[in-house]
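Worked example 3. Consider a protein that binds uridine-5'-diphosphate.
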Amino acid sequence: MNLSLVTPVYNEQDNLPLLFEAINKVMPTMNRTWEVILVDDGSQDNSLAVLNEYAKKDPAHVRVISFRRNFGQTAAIAAGLDYAQGEIIVLLDADMQNDPADIPMMLAKLDEGYDLVSGWRKSRKDNAITRNFPSMIANRIISRVTGVHLHDYGCTLKAYRRDVLEGFRLYGEMHRFIPVYAHSVGAKITEMAVNHHPRKHGKTKYGLERTAKVVLDLFTVKFLISYSSKPIYLFGGAGGFLMVVSAIIMLYLFVRRIFFLVAIATSPLLQMSAMFFILGFQSILLGLIAELLVRTYHESQRKPTYTIRTMINLEQDPRD
Ligand code: UDP
Ligand code: MG
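Given these inputs, the predicted complex is written out as structure tokens:
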């Protein structure tokens, strides 16, 4: 199998026929073996019935997974990825805001040697105040914090080479952070402007609150990418900093006592110094516990702390 399209579906009954029409129009032009995996995320409308109908009509290409309840877009994408067989995976939304006609151009870019081609909704057709503006800010923050510079993390339409997705689990709203993960395992990433259409049927499932969740997820992602194999650097660093602050306050109090005869015990700075000391010490201990957890994580799952692109004259996994 060369190409898997993966699409999360939640209450999109009126969009699905348009989606299938667009997919069936573009796929035959590409000369690739392909499948489309549609994950029904507990829709309450007729989406599942529509999906089943198309799956029956075209069993060679259309595969459907149906959740027992609504688990969210990221979970739906994760399920699709688990069952996708293609060497190349393209994610797209089912609501026809993404345009399947963009897929050939993205795959051509992938063939130039990239591992991930990220769609960029250059002229995005969503609510300017609740979606586009906050998302622009979020994209800038994410780019800055992670060092992976993309204009549009939130665009579902992206093409991936399968190996950059392996070994990565999706939680929360994490699907948008796949490029960050891919970058951390050494993927070559590029982006290209893609079409974006206003929603014709149904309505968006998100509002302003989504951006807040994304920013919280960013903390997790940054921590996992930068410190998951060396948490003591973060906890120890923070703890060390607090203890230094505590020491400086103490020193100041002593100097004041000796040269200016101001009592130490009555100053609120004494409590502050003690608090910083305790917090700092605790933080270092937390870091040590985190180090234990990291070892358990890597060793119990036999997860290496590195990723290999190619090997020469070597085939066997050293752990087997
Ligand atoms: N979606 C989903 N589960 C959800 C919410 C959304 O599978 O809980 C799907 C939805 O059907 C669509 C895609 O995720 O295919 C994007 O959702 P939406 O269009 O509401 O997001 P927006 O384009 O407004 O960011
Ligand atoms: Mg949409």
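Take a moment to read the result before moving on. The chain has a mean pLDDT of 93. The chain has two domains: 3-227, 232-300.
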